[in-house]
């Protein structure tokens, strides 16, 4: 658990959100309010392999393949028999995947810099003056995963490569927000960069699609389109998808998951 601090500038304030007087006296000029709480930041490089281990423990068989049409997945069941139901969790690729072709999906490009520096808490601030689609936050990942500094929120941008100019803005904004990220008087040269990264958030108009479907006679349960909250929402969305799968299995007279 880590301390997290979210700061909201006066210019970004929404009138319906109150400003607690207790924190006002400690705020920098231009800042309207701040919230402090403890929170976690998972290290996905550790979390995802752990999830695979949990699945394997319960007997899940993993196979790798690139699928052109969602219905083709039914023929890949390890038993050699046709699967009763296919669960489609292909994220942004559901835009192009045959049998799905969901044009409500859009990439929201997020660029980050991962550094070894530790700001001591997690921080984010509403908006930046650099661009409407740029943001500022930093999160220190569990178990020595470094600090992720963000970022951007660029709708319909597919570029998978880091933009060096944006990287400089990201790093400068982080230091302006949390000067203790680097040594006294240092600028971005004080950041110990591990890597630059880009990810495309699988944003979907109308929200995630968690829905039972039938494609070319194959039962499909979709679970994709979670934008920038796929990890946070994963247990809830998976529970809903499992219910839908069980509904399909019940109709087919099969055992529940
Ligand atoms: C910069 C950034 C910051 C983020 N911050 C957060 C955060 O703080 N909290 C949070 O909860 N989320 C965050 N997210 C969002 C989160 O990463 C996504 O919501 C999540 O990864 C989506 O998971 P998914 O499994 O649905 O899709 P993906 O992770 O895209 O997985 C889809 C999988 O399907 C496979 N696949 C696709 N097409 C095919 C095919 N045709 N055949 C075979 N396999 C296929 C892919 O190989 C991939 O393994 C962030 C994302 C970015 C980019």
Automatic annotation (TrEMBL):
<dbReference type="Pfam" id="PF01266">
    <property type="entry name" value="DAO"/>
</dbReference>
<protein>
    <recommendedName>
        <fullName>D-amino-acid oxidase</fullName>
        <ecNumber>1.4.3.3</ecNumber>
    </recommendedName>
</protein>
<dbReference type="InterPro" id="IPR006181">
    <property type="entry name" value="D-amino_acid_oxidase_CS"/>
</dbReference>
<dbReference type="GO" id="GO:0005782">
    <property type="term" value="C:peroxisomal matrix"/>
</dbReference>
<dbReference type="GO" id="GO:0071949">
    <property type="term" value="F:FAD binding"/>
</dbReference>
<feature type="domain" description="FAD dependent oxidoreductase">
    <location>
        <begin position="28"/>
        <end position="244"/>
    </location>
</feature>
<dbReference type="GO" id="GO:0003884">
    <property type="term" value="F:D-amino-acid oxidase activity"/>
</dbReference>
<dbReference type="InterPro" id="IPR006076">
    <property type="entry name" value="FAD-dep_OxRdtase"/>
</dbReference>
<dbReference type="GO" id="GO:0019478">
    <property type="term" value="P:D-amino acid catabolic process"/>
</dbReference>
<keyword id="KW-0274">FAD</keyword>
<keyword id="KW-0285">Flavoprotein</keyword>
<keyword id="KW-0560">Oxidoreductase</keyword>
<comment type="similarity">
    <text>Belongs to the DAMOX/DASOX family.</text>
</comment>
<dbReference type="InterPro" id="IPR023209">
    <property type="entry name" value="DAO"/>
</dbReference>
<keyword id="KW-0576">Peroxisome</keyword>
